[in-house]
Amino acid sequence: MSTNSGWLDDEQQRVWRSYRRMAALLAARVNRDMARDSGLSEPDYDVLSHLSESPEHKARLSELAGRMLWSNSRLSHHLTRMQQRGLVRRCECPDDGRGANIVLTDEGLRAIEAAAPAHVASVRAHFVNLLDEDQLRVLGDIADTVLNHLTRD
């Protein structure tokens, strides 16, 4: 691995640009499929899936914001719209009067359960099924290496 702090060489530049284009196009395709199939946005799905996997279908607003790499304020505005649609509700956090817990409603659980199969099918069609087992393993290892570096602090 090169530690040169100068310009990327041709191969490094090709890989970086291909990765960025792939990530953008893949996210756009999967998100477009999800909106078409379920009416949910990527942030809706992220919130609902996290809550559906959480104990008591509940999580702190700050925990959700951290997971989504959003500010608490930005997520709070998004949650207000989700709350208006009946997908989530807020409740006070008993151990922190300033904090809020976000709770998955029955409607939100039905929405994520209905959306998940088509979402998984889209991820498979546009990503997983295009790669063999070795490629998936290597990509997972690469992602873990970069994530460990970026989340070290």
In short:
The chain is built from six helices and three strands; from the N terminus they run ααβααββαα.
> How do the strands of the widest beta sheet line up side by side?
1-3-2
Low-confidence stretches: none
| Class by alpha and beta content | mainly alpha
Coarse shape: globular
Number of strands: 3
Q: Can you tell me about this structure?
A:
By secondary structure, this protein is mainly α. The protein has one domain (11-150): Orthogonal Bundle (Arc Repressor Mutant, subunit A), CATH 1.10.10.10. The protein is built from 6 helices and 3 strands. It has helices at 10-38, 42-53, 61-68, 72-84, 106-126, 133-150; strands at 58-60, 88-93, 96-104. The protein has a 3-stranded antiparallel β-sheet with strand order 1-3-2. Strand 2 and strand 3 form a beta hairpin. Helix 1 (10-38) packs across helix 5 and helix 2 (42-53) crosses helix 5. The longest helix is centred in the first third of the chain and has 29 residues, at 10-38. The radius of gyration is 19 Å and the shape is globular. The model has no long low-confidence stretch (mean pLDDT 94).
List the helices and strands and how they pair.
Blueprint (H helix, E strand, L loop, with lengths): L9 H29 L3 H12 L4 E3 H8 L3 H13 L3 E6 L2 E9 L1 H21 L6 H18 L3
Helix pairs in contact: 1-5, 2-5, 3-4
Pfam families: MarR_2 (PF12802)
Protein name: MarR family transcriptional regulator
InterPro entries: HTH_MarR-typ (IPR000835), MarR/SlyA-like (IPR039422), WH-like_DNA-bd_sf (IPR036388), WH_DNA-bd_sf (IPR036390)
